[in-house]
Amino acid sequence: MTYTKDELITLLKEGNRSKELNKYLKNNRIDLTGADLIGVNLEGVDLKNADLTYANLAGLNLISANLRYIDLTNANLTGACLLNADLTGADLKNADLTEVNLTGANLTRANLRMTNLASADLTGACLKRADLTGANLINANLTSADLKDADLYYADLIGAKLIGANLTDINLRYANLRGADLSRVNLIHADLTKANLFGVNLTNAKLWLTNFDDLDLRLADFTGADLFGVDLTNANLTGSNLIFMLLDSWSVYVQPSHTRIGCEYHTNEEWRSFTDEEIHVMDSHALDWWNKYKLIIFTAMDALKG
Prior knowledge:
Layout: H1 5-13, H2 19-27, E1 243-247, E2 250-254, E3 258-261, E4 264-267, H3 268-273, H4 276-282, H5 286-303
Antiparallel strand pairs: 1-2, 2-3, 3-4
C-alpha cells in the first residue's frame, strides 16, 4: 500500500501509528516537504531519509526518533524535543532550532550550516565531524558534547556553555566565543585562527599545543588550565589571570597558583622554594637560566596575587 503526502499528514495528525504505517515510513523515502505537523507526537518515529524541507515541526515530540540522513533544510523545529534522536548525516541547513532539546542526540556528520541553534540544549550530544559553519549557537548549552573534528568556521558562540566538551581538532576559525564557558574542555590541536575569545572561561581546560597566536584573550580565565606547548605569541592577555613570557629557549606560563616552565609544572610556592640542586636536575642548562630570570618570574607571580 502507498500513501500520498496529504494522506500521510492526515494519518500522522490523527495519531495513527499502525504497524502498516510504521513499516511504510521505515521502508520508503517519505516526502513531507512543507508539511505542517504542529501538535503531532512523533516520539520514536522512523523517518530515515525522509524529505521534510520547509516543514513546520515546531514544538514536536521527536524523542528517540530515527532521523538518519533526513532532509530538514529550512525546516522550523523551534522548541522541539529531540532527546536522544539519531540525526546522523542529517541535513539541517538553514533550519530554525531555537531552544530545541537535543540532549544526547547523535548529529555525527550532520549539515548544520547557517542553522539557528540559539539557546538550544545540546548537552552530551555527538557532533563529530558536523558542519556548523556560520551557525548561531548564542547561549547554547553544549556541556559534555563531542565536537571532535567539527567545523564551526564563523560560528557565533557568544555566551555558549561548552563545559567539559571535546573540541579536539575542531575548526573555530573566525568563531565568536565572547564570554563562552570552555571550562574543562579538551582543545588539543584546535584551530582558533582569528577567533574572538574575549572574556572566555578556560578554567581547568586542556589546551595542549593550541595556537592562541595574536588572539584577543582579554579578561580570559586560565585558572588551572593545562598550557603544555601552547603558543601565546602576540596574544592580548590584558585583564586575564595569565602572564606569558618567552625567555630565551623556554616558554613561561604564570598562573595565580601554578607556573609552567617548559615541561615543568609546579605551584608558585614550590618554584620559590626550589634549591639550586633541584633546579639543576630539571635540565643541564636550567640553573644558569633560572638565576638569570627567576626574579622576573617571581615579579609576575606577585602581580597575579589576590
